[in-house]
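STRUCTURE REQUEST FORM
Protein name: Transcription repressor NadR
Source organism: Roseburia lenta
Requested output: structure tokens
Priority: standard
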Amino acid sequence: MSGEERRNQIIHILQSSDTPISGVKLAKMLDVSRQVIVQDVALLRAKDICIHSTNRGYVIDKNQETLRVFKVIHTEEETAEELQTIIDLGGWVKDVFVYHKTYGVIRGELNIHSRYDIEQYIAELKSGKSSQLMNVTSGYHYHTVYARDEAVLDRIQELLGEKGFLAKLQEYEPVNFWEES
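Status: completed
Returned output:
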């Protein structure tokens, strides 16, 4: 079992449990040391998976939102429409990032939850001398989008596709932007 598969199993086990599960018990279930579990939990937390440590073991926030990374392309003038598409369907945009062949992943926090946030973001871009991060990569960029469930993310993906905003991953792009190399 790979590390990613094991971490997915940890999430599944914690989501399926009504009581906290100790690191020792998780280690026995997954046939690894407790230290490996501690490291896996730290990696999951770094990915914004809300796992709490209690005196009886680990618990996961079952009301936690799920996430998906979308690769998109559009013009600067279409930025508000792209973000509104995501927000109006129930998602929120955590960040924007690009994958540059030389520099790797370059990321900026957005935390856009509403149309008001979009207006503020666009106004800030227009008032400054900086251009959008997507301009570094000819318009191609990515957003980490959170929503209450996969169905919302599916609908967001569908509508972004219908509007022509989705872009295809290339062979040189890493599939998982969250794992350390």
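Reviewer notes: The chain has two domains: 3-60, 66-162. The beta strands are 51-54, 57-60, 66-73, 92-100, 104-112, 140-147.
Form closed.
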